[in-house]
Amino acid sequence: MPETATAVRQVRRPEGAPRPEDFELVEVEIPALEAGQVLVRNLFLSVDPYHRELMDSEGWRKGFGLEGGSLGRVVASREPLLPRGTIVHHRHGWSSHAVLTAGEVREIERAAGVPLSTYLGLLGGTGLTAYVGLQRIARLLPGEDVFISGAAGAVGSAAGQIARILGARRIVGSAGSPAKIKHLTDRLGFDAAFDYHDGIAGQLTRALPRGIDVYFDNVGGDHLEAAIGALRRFGRIAWCGAVAQYNNPEEPPPAPRNLYDVVGKSLRMEGFQVGNHLDAREELGALLIPRIQAGDVQVDETVTEGIEHTVDAFLGMLRGENIGKAVVQLADGVGD
Ligand code: NAP
Question: What is the value of pTM for the model shown?
Answer without folding.
Answer: 0.96
